[in-house]
Structures are given as structure tokens and as C-alpha cells.
Design a protein that fits this description.
The protein has about 425 residues and is α/β, with parallel strands linked by helices. It is built from 15 helices and 13 strands. β12, α15 and β13 form a beta-alpha-beta unit. The chain is globular. The structure holds adenosine monophosphate (AMP). The site of adenosine monophosphate has 12 residues, from α3.
């Protein structure tokens, strides 16, 4: 069945794939319909199989819905309609945002009115701008307003700060990143200067509070982004504690992909008369991702199949997911030895290493990013052509988050999930 085309380790120089990337011979794999390893053919008999984790394999198989089937969204508002400062409108125009996305359309007017809000929305929906635009506007009108934005991962914090800087360019508003993996001293100094926006992860924020650098009572605006993921990551105690330190009179904005597993309790406890804006479910956001599975019969063959896939020219920018940091590091190393421009991103790396890997991937110097779920959560990277689940995700929700890294915006993407027969 499986024809081996890997013929031994081959290292490229410092350049890109060029023609010299790994072995050139490609003998076979995954093309929908004729792929001996895919599930779609087997599925005809409506037989369901269980993956290693009790997940129904058929849920990883889905044809991307053709773009013609997507319903056009007609926003109720134009950016020009929002009661925001002209300079902020100019920033939005500079970013070439023509119309508000659904979450922006629904949320911005309410946030501008000062309402607490629960936004049920995934990354990729424009939710960052949905809270940044009104909060920046508030800071422009009332320079003493302070906002703290809590997010599950360092990368997401970096991404949000970058977006903040874009919007707030030339507006004399300060922001500080408070994330782990970098020295605390500078962050402590910056935070003491009382910036308008603090963007950070719960652990480091708590550290800065405990050391009395960060004064939560000064922050009358709070955003919790990806609440469900923060709870998944076990931050519930920190979050409850941090929220309890905020002033009672405040504006609180929660964003989460779902309101399950404690997110609702948290919202009910800490938000006042919130308005809820829910945009189409995460399942819908994966509709333009073509999904299929690949069977692997042994550990050795699995890496060969992956190798062959990555050689295919259409695998221009791939993210490979594994469940453990160790596994991700090991696979990245293997791929590098085999000549691929691969890098890893997981929680055991320093902030600098993670940033380098991401920057390289964004810029196209790295074409294969090997990641763990937590590290890759919320990443917004343009042009990811393929998501490969080398390890099965722990839950279907994790799966949806993983595959949501591709097929973003109007582009379609592809997701392949390995099913290890040797583990069954
Ligand atoms: P987010 O869900 O906040 O991670 O945003 C996903 C991507 O959508 C980011 O690259 C944003 O820059 C982009 N984006 C946000 N709002 C808009 C908009 N109104 N029009 C076009 N792109 C947008």
C-alpha cells in the first residue's frame, strides 16, 4: 500500500526549499478519492470507527463547502456610523477595513455605550478590533481610563498588542505586555508608569500584582479573551482573584468560543447586566476547510507519510499539531534533519524562541510549524495551507481550534488527521 519515497536524511543549506528540499521522488500519497489511507472511501458504508481517544473518526472527514454556498454578511453599520474619534476612523481606514465583521457590527455599538458584554466568537472573526476600537476610543476621550486585557497565551497577547499599536499609532496611548518567558523587571517598570493598556497572561499579571507593581483598582475596563481556553488551562483561580481586585464600577468584556465549562458561571458572577453577541459557531468557521484522515500503520511509516506530504508543492505553509511539548520538539528536530524548513512552538521554549519561530513562519522562511495546542491557540497567520493533526486532538473543540488556523477569511484550507492503526 504505502510506497516509501524517503531515501534518507538530506539537509538543505540555509536557503528555502528550492529544488533541493529532501528527496525529490514522490510516489503516492494523499489525494482524496484515491488515497488508500483516507477514511472517506470507507465511510461509504456509514461505518464509524473510533480513534485512539474515543473520537469518532468520521468527524475528521468533511469536504470544504464551496465558497458559492456562503451567505454574504450585510453589516448593519459602517465604520463611519460608529460614534468614535475621527483619528480612530482614520486608523481603521489605514488598515483597509471596509466593513465591520459580524462581531464588530454587533458588539461595538454596545461597548461604546458602556455595556458589559459576552461575545461568543472565535479567533479569526475580528474580535480583537471589536474590543480594541471602543476601548481606544474611551481612552482618547478620557485619558485616565485604564484597560487590562487577559488572554491565555503569550502569542495572543503579542498579537493583540501589535494590533493595538496599529490602531493607536500617533495617539499617545501606552501599552505594556505582561507575559511570562521574559524578564519581569522591565515589565514591572513599565507597568508602574500606569499605561493605558495592559495586555497579559494571568500568571504574569498575578505576579505583578503580588509584587505590588500592578494596581488592579486603577483598571476600570477589563477584557477576558478566550475565556474558555483560559479555564481549560486551569487559570480559573487566578482569573477569579484578578477580577475580584478590579473596581466595582467598571466595564467588563468577555470573549469566548463557547459558554461551556465554567465560562458562563464566571460571566454571571463578574459581569453586570451583560449583552450577549453570538456569531455563527466555530463549526461554521471551519466550513471552508477540506478535512480528511490518513491511516498510519506504524510509527516509522507515519513519519514517512508526513515527509511525503510535506514534499508536495501545495503544502506551502503547514502547521503540524502534537499533544505534547516533547513530541513537538522531537518531530521538529526530525523534520529539520530531513531537510525541511521546520520549527517548533511549544510551552518549553523561551518567549524569544517562540517569537522567532512565529516570525519565521509568518515571513515564509519556515514552512512547517510544529506546535502544541496551547501554544498555537488563537494564532492568526495568513496563508496557512494545511493543518496536520499528527496526534489526535483531545476534544472536538480542540480539533476545531486547530483546523481554524487554515481556511481563514475567504481562503480555503486543508486539514489532515492521522489515525494510528498501530495504537488501536
Ligand atoms: P481576530 O479575530 O481579531 O484575530 O482578527 C482576525 C483577522 O481579521 C486579523 O488579521 C484582523 O486584522 C482582521 N480584521 C479584523 N477586523 C477586520 C475588518 N473589519 N475587515 C477586515 N479584516 C479585519
Amino acid at each position: 500500500m504505502y510506497k516509501k519515497s524517503y531515501t534518507g536524511a538530506k539537509k538543505t543549506g540555509s536557503g528555502g526549499f528550492g529544488g533541493s528540499r529532501g528527496p525529490k521522488k514522490y510516489t503516492g500519497p494523499v489525494k482524496k478519492g484515491n488515497n488508500p489511507f483516507t477514511f472517506r472511501d470507507m465511510k461509504r458504508g456509514a461505518k464509524k470507527q473510533k480513534g485512539q481517544l474515543g473520537l469518532d473518526v468520521s468527524m475528521f472527514v468533511r469536504k470544504a463547502i464551496e465558497k458559492t454556498e456562503t451567505v454574504a454578511f450585510h453589516p448593519e453599520h459602517r465604520f463611519a456610523d460608529f460614534h468614535i474619534e475621527e483619528r480612530l476612523k482614520a486608523s481603521i481606514a489605514r488598515r483597509n477595513y471596509e466593513h465591520p465583521t459580524p462581531i464588530q457590527d454587533g458588539a461595538i455599538p454596545h461597548i461604546l455605550k458602556g455595556r458589559d458584554l459576552i461575545g461568543i466568537a472565535n479567533t479569526g472573526t475580528g474580535k480583537t478590533a471589536a474590543f480594541l476600537i471602543p476601548l481606544i476610543n474611551k481612552a482618547l476621550l478620557h485619558p485616565k481610563e485604564r484597560a487590562i486585557i487577559l488572554v491565555p497565551t503569550r502569542e495572543l497577547a503579542v498579537q493583540i498588542e501589535e494590533e493595538f499599536k496599529e490602531f493607536a499609532r500617533g495617539m499617545n496611548l501606552a501599552s505594556v505586555l505582561t507575559i511570562g518567558g521574559v524578564h519581569l523587571d522591565k515589565q514591572a517598570r513599565d507597568v508602574r508608569r500606569s499605561p493605558n493598556f495592559v495586555i497579559g497572561t494571568p500568571g504574569r499579571v498575578k505576579d505583578l500584582i503580588d509584587r505590588k507593581f500592578l494596581m488592579m483598582p486603577d483598571y476600570s475596563n477589563v477584557v477576558l479573551d478566550e475565556v474558555d481556553r483560559m479555564l481549560d488551562m486551569g487559570f480559573v483561580k487566578e482569573i477569579r482573584h484578578l477580577l475580584s481586585l478590579l473596581p466595582e464600577k467598571r466595564q467588563s468584556l468577555f470573549f469566548s468560543a463557547t459558554l461551556e465549562r465554567g465560562a458562563k458561571d464566571l460571566a454571571m458572577k463578574f459581569l453586570q447586566d451583560p449583552i450577549m453577541i453570538s456569531i455563527p459557531s466555530s463549526r461554521a468557521t471551519s466550513e471552508n476547510v477540506d478535512q480528511d484522515v490518513i491511516y498510519s500503520e506504524s510509527r516509522e511509516k507515519k513519519v514517512e507519510i508526513l515527509h511525503d506530504l510535506l514534499l508536495k508543492p501545495e503544502f506551502e505553509k503547514s502547521i503540524i499539531f502534537l499533544r505534547t511539548k516533547y513530541g513537538a520538539a522531537k518531530l521538529a528536530k526530525t523534520l529539520k534533519i530531513r531537510g525541511f524548513q521546520a520549527d517548533a512552538i511549544h510551552g518549553d521554549l523561551s518567549q524569544g524562541q517562540r517569537k522567532r519561530a512565529l516570525d519565521g513562519f509568518r515571513a515564509g522562511k519556515v514552512s512547517v510549524l510544529v506546535a502544541t495546542d496551547v501554544a498555537a491557540r488563537g494564532l492568526d497567520i495568513d496563508g496557512v495551507t494545511h493543518v496536520i493533526n499528527y496526534d489526535l486532538p483531545a476534544t472536538y473543540e480542540d480539533y476545531i481550534h486547530r483546523i481554524g488556523r487554515t481556511g481563514r477569511g475567504s481562503k480555503s484550507g486543508s486539514a489532515l488527521t492521522f489515525i494510528d492503526k498501530f495504537r488501536a
